[in-house]
Every structure is written in C-alpha cells, then in structure tokens.
Write a structure and sequence with these properties.
- There is one protein chain.
- The chain has 220 residues and is α/β, with parallel strands linked by helices.
- 50% of the residues lie in helices and 12% in strands.
- It has 9 helices and 6 strands.
- The chain has a 6-stranded parallel beta sheet, with helices on both faces.
- Helix 1 crosses helix 9, helix 2 crosses helix 5 and helix 3 runs antiparallel to helix 5.
- It starts with 10 loop residues before the first strand and ends with a strand.
Length: 220
C-alpha cells in the first residue's frame, strides 16, 4: 500500500508599508522565490477601468475635475485631489475597496488551486480594505525617512509632491501595528540587506506553512 502526503498549504502573505519604503523590492524577491504576487493597485485599476461600474461611480462622485479630454478617468488628477483631501480619499476608498477585495480573493483562490507555495497581497491600505483579515501573516515594510525621500527622488518625484504623499499616509505604520501583529522588515540601508531578510523570512514561512507566534517579530 502506498501513501501520499497531503498537499502543502499556500501561505497567504499581506505586504504593506509607506510609500518609498521598499514594498516593491520585497514583492519582487518573493515572486522570484516562487510566490504569486497580487498588486492591489493594479487590481484597483482593473476594477475602475473605463466601462466598469467602478469607473462610473468615481466619475459620479468627483465629476469633471477627474476626467480627461476623452471623458474617462484621469488618475493623476484624482490622485492630486485625494492626497490632500481626507474626505475625498475616504469616499474613493468607499467605492474601490468593496470592488477590490472580491477580485483579490479570486486571485488568491487561483494561486491556491495551482498550489503556489505562497501568495502575496501587496497593498498600502491592507488593513483598511479588510485584506489583512484574509492573510496568514502581515509583513510591514519600513525604513528611515531619509531613505524614503531619497528613493522617491530617485523615481523622479518632486520633493514637494513626495512630502504630500508621505503626509497622506501619516499613521499607516501605527494603524497596522494596532490592528495586527506584523512581521516588520526594516529596509534601511542597501538593497542586498533587504533581499537577505526577505529570503530568511521566506524560508521560515515555508517551513511553518503559516504564521506562528515565534515568527511574529521584527526583522532588523
């Protein structure tokens, strides 16, 4: 008589952190290691593309201030509004989050059906959008403000614009910490150090196939 091992469970990893702190670097390395990466921003663009109910709802709320010459959503104009207006951001999230979550859950199911070792949900508003609740573990990416500003400058972001974007996310780290007990990866310093930390974390997650209290600690 032969026996077969039970299928190994896909690890669900929530990935969040302020702009310019290295989420994309962490996500890329996890993808290289075999994880399926779901970018919540990309999903949000898909569910608010022209012709979708999400697109129509945004235009109904914000009107001509966020439409281009073609009459479709101008995402840059929308971003300029919500970065400085918390009420507008709240309204936008009220439209987008209910659409994004089921789409992301469908991507997660696909990854699990294909027996991916891990699936990563990369989202700035991981907690606010209810996505942390569907993850086994949350990874919070942080860094020094000097590194954050330098990385945004390297992307060509104007210093004033960088300041506004950082200010719009004020309190993100504290909100995550107050809602879940995250694994923290501090990406301050060279990228090689961050990659090493990600590789170490990946090995731990695969070995445990899910979060344990012993793994919920800062990685510095």
């Amino acid at each position: 008589m032969s026996s077969r091992s039970a299928p190994v469970r896909t690890v669900r990893i929530g990935l969040t952190g302020p702009i310019g702190c290295g989420k994309s670097t962490v996500a890329r390395r996890l993808e290289d290691l075999g994880a399926v990466v779901i970018d919540a921003d990309q999903v949000a663009r898909e569910v608010t593309a022209p012709g979708t109910p999400g697109h129509d709802a945004i235009l109904e709320r914000f009107g001509g201030t966020v439409t281009g010459d073609s009459g479709v959503l101008d995402r840059a104009a929308l971003a300029r509004i919500v970065f400085v207006d918390p009420a507008a951001l709240h309204d936008l999230e009220g439209i987008v989050h209910p659409l994004v979550r089921p789409a992301i859950e469908a991507h997660i199911r696909w990854a699990e059906e294909h027996r991916a070792p891990g699936v990563v949900v990369e989202a700035i508003r991981l907690v606010e959008g209810g996505l942390a609740a569907v993850c086994d573990v949350v990874v919070l990416v942080t860094c020094r403000r000097e590194d954050q500003l330098a990385r945004l400058a390297a992307r060509g972001v104007d210093p004033d614009d960088a300041g506004r974007r950082i200010a719009a996310q004020a309190g993100l780290v504290e909100r995550v910490r107050s809602s879940v007990e995250p694994i923290v990866i501090d990406t301050t310093g060279p990228e090689e150090r961050t990659v090493r930390l990600v590789e170490e974390l990946w090995e731990q997650l695969l070995a445990a196939r899910g979060p344990s209290e012993g793994m919920r600690q800062d990685h510095r």
